[in-house]
Design goal:
globular; mainly alpha
Length: about 425
Amino acid sequence: MTTGLWALLGTIMLGALLRLPLALVMFGGGASYLFATKQDIGLLVGQVMNQMTAMYVLVAIPMFILAANIMNAATISDRLWAAANVLVGRFKGGMGHVTVLASMIFSGISGSAITDAAGPGLVATKMMRETGKYPPGLACAITAAAATIAPIIPPSIPLVIYALLSGASIGALFLAGIVPGILMGGALMIAIRIIAGRRDLPIGEKVPLRDAPRIFASSALSLTLPVVLLGGIFSGIFTPTESAAVAAFWALILGTIAYRRISLPVFQGVLLETSKQTATTMLLVASAFILNYAIANERLAESLVAAISAMQLTPLMFMLVVNLFFLVLGCFLDASVMMLVFVPLLIPSAKALGIDLTYFGIVVTLNFMIGLITPPYGLLLFVMASLTRVPLMAIIREIWPFVLTLTLLLAVLTVFPAITLFLPRLFGYQ
């Protein structure tokens, strides 16, 4: 490696050891690279501003964050939990099934695993622990695993960022995430059913049929948001980027007029929280541009393509190597780092092997979601421990069956690309 790359990697590793904010670490790595290669430090600003202003798709990120925060403030999580409980709560391990189903529904609103865990996830964990008498670690593990569905089922903030990095169609990516997301929910429910049988978890609450219409009516308006969102995209009424603003506006209408939960002080708090989350996300995206400049300047992608060509890997072999690479990295690195640093490096190789970038995007994003619940670093594990005050080790002991379940599903999706590409092809995406 060159002196510049050693400087970049050394700075990033030092920042990680010191637990500095990730965006600042990445900016610092970029600055170290420019100093070591004797380039103008002004490129930090130039690369960031040129890329940020050229990427219209970035507008979608704050809008999706705003929509999710409004829906949380409007008590949507409680309504979704109640509706899901009517459908699957009466089965063995019912509250675990309800948690997964509620997360799948909320996934069509939030697009963020962290938002899912902090929204319906907290409601689910409380119900499992207090009403279902689930062990605290198991309740948190189920919630964390269910939250990984959010960035797969559209809308999805990670898929928007992947589209930005790869040039893949957001519409195709959103369509491609639907079937894998549903399969994730089904696989997790099977795992919960097996655990419930072995550990004699209780049957969930049996809601009287006479109460079902009232509960469904209470949650019906909440379910119009993903319908409006996805229906507008796939009918061509608005673009995927514009859909984010539509989602935020529709969520505001529901929260203020339909549910009357969004007052002016509440809305001010929502805007403040959205601003914080948006700033964090945008700083990460911005810091990635200077790292991508270093990767391009060092011609690392071209070198990787040449190395893979020399190895004569088939597309399937390449995808299996990518899976193994990200599953190992996910134990130690944040999903944002893997998406922003390593994906741009791998995309040229995927193109050279003729791998569909929509399929590639879903597979690598699922890898990142598994990383969110894989010890020792798994971010969702830390989030659940922080929000619920449950010891981290108790959650780690219970998370492994769900890591294994999602890894097996990852293998299936990798070997059979048609599962992921079925809907995009049906709607005319190549």
